[in-house]
Amino acid sequence: MEDSTSPKQEKENQEELGETRRPWEGKTAASPQYSEPESSEPLEAKQGPETGRQSRSSRPWSPQSRAKTPLGGPAGPETSSPAPVSPREPSSSPSPLAPARQDLAAPPQSDRTTSVIPEAGTPYPDPLKQSSDKRESTPHHTSQSEGNTFQQSQQPKPHLCGRRDVSYNNAKQKELRFDVFQEEDSNSDYDLQQPAPGGSEVAPSMLEITIQNAKAYLLKTSSNSGFNLYDHLSNMLTKILNERPENAVDIFENISQDVKMAHFSKKFDALQNENELLPTYEIAEKQKALFLQGHLEGVDQELEDEIAENALPNVMESAFYFEQAGVGLGTDETYRIFLALKQLTDTHPIQRCRFWGKILGLEMNYIVAEVEFREGEDEEEVEEEDVAEERDNGESEAHEDEEDELPKSFYKAPQAIPKEESRTGANKYVYFVCNEPGRPWVKLPPVIPAQIVIARKIKKFFTGRLDAPIISYPPFPGNESNYLRAQIARISAGTHVSPLGFYQFGEEEGEEEEEAEGGRNSFEENPDFEGIQVIDLVESLSNWVHHVQHILSQGRCNWFNSIQKNEEEEEEDEEKDDSDYIEQEVGPPLLTPISEDLEIQNIPPWTTRLSSNLIPQYAIAVLQSNLWPGAYAFSNGKKFENFYIGWGHKYSPDNYTPPVPPPVYQEYPSGPEITEMDDPSVEEEQAFRAAQEAVLLAAENEESEEDEDEEDDYD
Amino acid sequence: MDADSLLLSLELASGSGQGLSPDRRASLLTSLMLVKRDYRYDRVLFWGRILGLVADYYIAQGLSEDQLAPRKTLYSLNCTEWSLLPPATEEMVAQSSVVKGRFMGDPSYEYEHTELQKVNEGEKVFEEEIVVQIKEETRLVSVIDQIDKAVAIIPRGALFKTPFGPTHVNRTFEGLSLSEAKKLSSYFHFREPVELKNKTLLEKADLDPSLDFMDSLEHDIPKGSEAVVQGDFMWLLSRCGFGWPCSWDSCSVSMRVLEHPDGEGQCPGGAAQPALAGPHLLPCSPHQELWLHLRGHWREEHGLALHAIEWEPAWMFLNRV
Q1: Is A492 part of a structural domain of the chain?
Q2: Which ipTM did the prediction report?
Q3: Domain that holds residue A543
Q4: Looking at the complex, does the CB of residue A601 fall below 8 Å from at least one CB of chain B?
Q5: Are A234 and A321 found together in one domain?
Q6: Quick one: where's region Disordered (chain A) (predicted)?
Q7: 3-state SS assignment for residue B219
């Protein structure tokens, strides 16, 4: 404890040395008067502030003997009274004066008083002044906290001392102040006389020493308990002032005991183990909202709910059937997804919603919902389209500018195939994804044909972050959200199947479209569907049909003739167009039986099973895709559902190999100017020259007038 | 998954989408109990299932007292009748490594593979086509062995080695803390150590011989092939009081298996992936060149073995988690 306080004291001393220089000069007025009693002290006093701790330790008796008096004996209000002056006078000049004066009268008492003055004096029992005291005292101490305890620790003294006459303390104070002013006046008078510098420092340093001695005594650590009185008192006073008990005097002993006992309770440690915040807590918090959403809705909203519920699929029922098939998420997770889908349908104008499946990722997984908006609710997409087109135009223009200067490249970028309108082809549905049930649903952008074409050539794991870049060869146009959307489109087109007869073509528009686009692309539920025997579904693949359009190699479901536009733009190349003519690509029409799906290397594209061989009469038919591992369909004869859970990769018996880069394009037309040839030999050059000269001679002979010109040329 | 706690394990594993139908579950619970009695195994683990085109293989493994001792593998097609598979030999692995494609689901099915073999007849060298017949059973054995070696993992501390040699289940193990669970160094390959012997003394200085007696995943190649995934398993795990999430090796086999030999908490990750395609698939581009480079080496050294083994996502297996 001593160690910790001593540096502060030294600082104090230094400060005070600096501060007090001026006041002491004033004070010297008194010094000649009291020169005799103080003459023995100056040397000691000088040493005191400088040596600080050493001086104290070297004279252990002095703090003890001196400090006893202020505590033990009832040091009347008189002795402590000068104290209040010092806080109010930052210069602190008057305070030392008063004791100095008393020194004369009672030399043995001088120690006592001085010890009280600067320390015990500063804080006054009057709580109103505490704040101001603190403020003033802080500069003396290194830290405010220390200052506080410091003051509080000293308060007992005035309490103890002035207990009898607290009331008149204030009055006394005024008196004292008056005294001080008087003194100051007198000081100012004496200022004219130049005092001896040595004598001026005597009194304060003595005070310092006594203060330090007293404090050192208080700080002395008990050999039994390891505490010291100084801290104990300060803790007690802190406690009293914080709690402000009635009649604190009477329970003072108890308070003391309490404070001592508090040492045994566990202390607040600055180094604490931070609570581990598991990510599961965060998710649990979010999922809690899912469970609460039902309660929050009032009864009034029931009508609205009815509309929304039409869009909501019965996920749990499908999950039950898929469980029979041995696939599907756990019941708990499925239910959470169910709730998340409900949230989705409640917050968006959704006509129809379906739990499409789950795509696994390296960091997080995607839960995918297939959604059909109500009519006229998907206007945002139109804007996005325009922006995208504009961007394309800008790029192509920039490209053309460059070409003007440089040799013209033969390369013509193939015309971008426009994406399909929403509600048609690959963009028939809108997809929402989220990483976990409870996290926000994110709408995936519509797919463009180029993305599907490239996605067929690459194979990447999903990370679980939609904005992750796809770094691949060939370069993929877009980020992971686009890739995810492209894979969803491919998987849907490949694996969404239904029992034959469940859907039928729409009758009204069907025929026209068949002629125009080579396949009808709208269908409706067949109200007369009577169901197919489960055993038939298992035994014959022709009882299952695709109900999602096949995606052509162009990346679209409905073929787009890219050449028609080319003809308009470049009429020069018309002859070429005949050879370039692309035959219209026709995919298998909608509702084609899956028995016509192609095999890959002798692997059948589908495997059918009965869910249970033990009780076949209640089993369901399970269809499992071998092309898209993870894609399943079930049917119990009347109901059916498709589901995908996997990595979003198509099966291939061979390892993935990236496609080879395209052949190098010719940069410029090759002609004789740039063709490499052998240098002519000397003979050849001479022969060439001779031939030229012969020609020239002939010319000269014919037209002699031009001789001069030719000579000039030779120069 | 330990057969004794199969249901819990399956529930924890359900996030991957692969499960067992109720009738399979029920029959497994019954038949594995009998397997344990008949073969006198210390523990029986339900290894998983391999999807075939016609039928699925259900695989179980029996462990003796020493957890690291060679395991006996059994298969079943109907989850009721189990047959013992022979231990894998290097010859079998090499032989079946040429087979590509899906399993059929019939152990007696024979794959045909034509090989060009050089035949010396006097001075002339002929190339002769030889048709090799490979039984699916052989392939099954070697693939199970390879998967075990590549991706069977346990968390650090789940097993401990006694001074006398045998490895035992650590009954005081309560799972890893979150910060530990995120590190690859907290997981070990559940197999006889291979890399550990190549380590220098300095590297081995920090290892605890009773716990760190297997290869950790830290130095697996390529890096990033194992992803510690804290997906939907996480809440399941933490709910059950296990601090460790499921993780899996996404490259060589996309399924990492967490093993808690006690059978308390186990979950499989997903399905398998083609081995060599891995580096292309990994999203981490900065390392891509390096991995491709490493891949080249792999091909030379273990080319045959890895080339043909495509652990396709299709035949999923629920490994002991």
Answers
A1: yes
A2: 0.72
A3: 293-376+414-504+523-559+585-646
A4: yes
A5: no
A6: 1-164, 375-410, 506-526, 695-715
A7: helix
